[in-house]
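Good morning C.,

I know you're traveling, so I'll keep this short. The sequence:
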Amino acid sequence: MSLGEYDVIVIGTGPAGLFCAANLAPAKVLILEKMKLPGRKLLLAGSGQCNLTHAGDVKTFTANYGDHGNFVKPSLMACSNRAVTDFFEHRGVPFFANENGKVFPVSLLADDVLDALLSACDEAGIEINYSEGVKAITSNANGYSVETFFAAYRAKYVVIATGGMSYPGTGSTGDGYGFAESLGHTIVSPEPALTPVYVDDHPLKDLSGISLPAKVSIWREGKKLLTREGDLLITRFGYSGPVILDASRWMRAGDLLKIAFTPLSPEGVDTLLKERTAASGGKQIQNLLFGLSCPDRLIRALVEASGIPEGTTGSQFTSKMRAALIENLTAFPVTISRLGDFNAAICTAGGVSLTEINKKTCESKIAPGVFFAGEVMDLDGDTGGYNIQAAFSTGFAAAKTILTLLCA
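The tokens, ready to paste straight into the viewer:
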């Protein structure tokens, strides 16, 4: 085997790996990528439109990383959302924020973001070897040896930026966990995160494609765990959309979801129905439910699900019917059959234990000189660009620490 000498070897060409490498100039850097092409998962971000960060004050971002906001905070402060967009705008990729604060390239093309990262790496003199998967990382007297299926390399520092296990067809198959374990690290069991939910006997499947603001509560063994608000998407197999994806980290198969399709409280819906049936008793029930922020097709489906016969008018509307309809509008019950697997999950929860990583530098506490960046760590965020922002920020933190060490 050949033996190349480098300052740094980065494993992976996702946003964490490429951004880290682009910020390592003038170090001698090699990126190893097992796939034939770079950034396969990045190209899927935001359905190919690449929602790469979120607008607003980066100091508020920590609440969007579950229990791990404190870990990622130093990286976010070192490389903010503004710093990320400045990096790309300097390279000819302008951005805009939509009404929900999600930041996209103006072109709505993830390819433009990937091209800018690759161009930055080229400017920094970074070598990238494709179709060269890593077999093992071992320590030596001067740093680390990285063995691939074709060669062996040496470097003072190694950055593991291999991603998690979601969308395995893009190359994210958990390789980094094995490397970390071989170096003495603990792996928090990887689980699908930001995943849709599947429902057996799905009564609203014919409404697939409808999206609307909703409030979702998670119940387990008769106790409410939490409530989240946001956009809900009805699918042919169950439910998705940001409100479901963000709450999925707390869900389990068998949990009960209660969905409020209207901002009105049960008491508010009850008052509305009583007033309208009294005033317009000849109108059919579905025609009395205007103004509830629900599409007509959903209203009709909920009326049917409430056991109200088609054509029922306000004057025929019984208290039992009203109670059933109020429940379905404000607490529609859904039992989760299963959560999406790694093929459906946007990211991975679990990974290299954060207790074994320095949060200020992203350097291993177990194997000095080894750094972690991005989703390979036990770090997952909400939808809206938070995960890619964390990838950029942790990659940057690792790069700046390595440059400081190289100059020492």
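Safe travels,
E.
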